[in-house]
Amino acid sequence: MPYTLKQPELHTIDDIYSLPEGSRAELIDGRIYDMAPPTRKHQIAAGELFTSIHGYIKAKGGTCEPYIAPFAVFLNKDDTNYVEPDISVICDKSKLTDKGCFGSPDWIIEIVSPGSRRMDYFTKLFKYRSSGVREYWIVDPDKNRILVYNFEEETTGDYTFADSVKAGIYDDLYINFSDITDLLNI
Length: 186
Hints:
Radius of gyration: 17 Å
Helix content: 25-40%
């Protein structure tokens, strides 16, 4: 008799909504990944990045909308992919509902925590690229590193927290990470 591997159980968005109150998890290709609470450094970085992006869009009269986690993103408009990126920028308002974003945001920023390193650098990198995200930043405070993937132009940039980093989806938005570094020295 041939040996067959047991297939892992695939989950859907209903399983995410069935989690106990206060639980946070993401769903990628039907697999649930639990999320640990963010650290203080993580929250400082997320807040500063969101403030810079939101301020830029508002000052320019832009139509894109930035969101900070927790904000539901239903990648691929299916029921087996649900993520909560640290920051999402959505330019196509038809993707937005009261529940979140249905489809890929234009720009996603993930801030790496010790427990999210593998997810952010590998799993999400592949998923975001294949689902149509235009630009993906991995911000890693512990490694003093910002990786910028511009999927439209097929370029990658590697920066430190001493650098000013240009957002690819905008002509003139630069984020000065040295301003954030000062706040992260806690």
